[in-house]
Every structure is written in C-alpha cells, then in structure tokens.
Amino acid sequence: MTLVASDSHLSTLPAERGQLKDEQTQKFVLTLSCVEQPGIVQAVTTFLFDRGFNIEEHQQFDDSLRQTLHLRTAFSGPQSYSPEQLDAEFRSIADRFDMQFSFHDQTKQRVLVMVSKFGHCLNDLIFRWRGGSLGGELVAVVSNHETHRAMAEAAGLPFIHIPVTPDTKAEAEQRLLELVDEYEADLVVLARYMQVLSNDLCRKLEGRAINIHHSFLPGFKGARPYHQAYDRGVKQVGATAHYVTADLDEGPIIEQEVIRVDHSYGPNALSTVGQDAEALALSRAVRWHCEHRVLLDRTSTVVFR
C-alpha cells in the first residue's frame, strides 16, 4: 500500500520511512532455469517466505517447446543473509529439480569496455553510467588505438592502450585477460571494438562478454555496412547486441534495435542513424545483463525486462 502525505509532510515522513526501510533490509535476485515440472514456484516462494523475505518482482517463462522453465525473482529481507549462504541453503531444492541457479546481491557488476576508433557507444555508456542508469559500474577502457583516451580519462576511467597486430595478437589477448582480473571485471563490453577475438579468448569470456553488431544478424557483414545497406535500398537500419562466442557474430542475441529510413538517406545519414541504434541496443543489453535479467538458453536468451 502506498500512502500519499499532505504537502506539509512531504519533506519529512516519507523520506525518513523510506530510508529506515532501506537500512533494515537487503535486496537480492534469484535466477534459475530447469526442466518444467510441478512445484518449482511453490518451492521457491516457500524457501523465501520461511526466511522472512518479501518478493518484490517475479517473472517466469514456461517454454513449452523446449519444456523448460526460466525464472527471475527479486526479493528483500534480513541483512544477515549473503548470496553464498542463500546458495548453500537452496542447494537441496536445486538438486531436487536439477536447477541451474544463481543468487545475486546489490553489488554492481564491474564493466570493462573495449573500443577502437568509433566512440559513439563508449560515449553513450559513459553518459548512462554517470547518470546512474547503466546498471553496472564502468571500471576501465581498453583500446587498440589512442583515439578515445581523452574521453575515458575525462570521465575518470583508466585508459589502457593495447596495440594489436597479427604478430602480437596472442600477447594482446593475454594482457586483456590480465586486466579483467586486475580490475575484477564481471563483464567485458565490445563497444565497436574492431578486432576479432580468438576462439580461446571467446571461450574464456563465455557468458560475460557482449558485442554490438551494426545490423540485424547475419546481414551486411564485413566492411562498409552502411554503404552495402544504401546499395540495397534498405528501409530499416538495425543493430544487434549479443554474447560473444567463437562463432563470429552468431552468439545468443540479447537485444535488437530498429529505426525506419527511406530512399533519401545516403550512406552518411544511414551511418548516423545506425550509430543511434547501436548505442541503444548495447546500453539496454548491458543494463539487463547487469541487473541479472538475461538468462542463457542454449544458443538463445530469455530476457526479463
């Protein structure tokens, strides 16, 4: 129930009560996937109720084609609990239903961004991060060019230049992995990073690296995509944010954005519109991942918005 105070009380009581509530509770998110069967939701809600938790948001998807259930439950309650403790106590339920599951607290995901010469996606991520709407915490920017050092450093982010050539590719990727560990990055974002990652690196970053592609996959691959689009007379410009896999530009899709265009758009105009689509799709994908709203399902995803 929500109570609306009179104007004379707006500056005191609601704020104080909200602050007190936040100080006394802790928020968590549970995500899980398993074969669809009776009793799963009851087991989850009973587990939370018995420990004094309050469910604040619950979403589930029953996939009748694959006979699987995917679930995301946000809840709050006693500060005495930790994700590790909840994990241990939930284990017997998970074993009974053969679940893949994770508990998460309010700790923000740490995000390392990789960029080359195009800076629109990096700029958008920084803007949303500084405005508090990204969902994660940017911790560093890595690039194979010096182009965007000033942008990163102006935002207070470390900028690490790692040149990449065919002869130094292996060393560059090893350095990247060292930086992921050094900055304790939970997520790596390829914000128009124009280098193909090796199969080995893709496997090591599986499920925790997001790329943005300049079209609806798999169309218009390769160089000069907007010139290809212009030559084909496209009527929609799109962008695809997906998880990185060893199969180039074929990872599980998280988000796609589309903007309608017409015959009057030349390559430069299409590029400008396309960059808007890329920034929108990527920022949404990053936020949803950081808020634990994306569940991997084989070669696809379930996204609880």
Automatic annotation (TrEMBL):
Signal peptide: none annotated. The active site is at 249. The keyword Hydrolase applies. GO terms for molecular function: formyltetrahydrofolate deformylase activity. SUPFAM superfamilies: ACT-like (SSF55021), Formyltransferase (SSF53328). Pathway: Purine metabolism; IMP biosynthesis via de novo pathway; formate from 10-formyl-5,6,7,8-tetrahydrofolate: step 1/1. It catalyses: (6R)-10-formyltetrahydrofolate + H2O = (6S)-5,6,7,8-tetrahydrofolate + formate + H(+). Residues 110-286 form the Formyl transferase N-terminal domain. Keywords: Hydrolase, One-carbon metabolism, Purine biosynthesis. Its EC number is 3.5.1.10. Pfam families: Formyl_trans_N. HAMAP family: PurU. Belongs to the PurU family. Catalyzes the hydrolysis of 10-formyltetrahydrofolate (formyl-FH4) to formate and tetrahydrofolate (FH4). This is Formyltetrahydrofolate deformylase. It comes from Paenarthrobacter histidinolovorans.
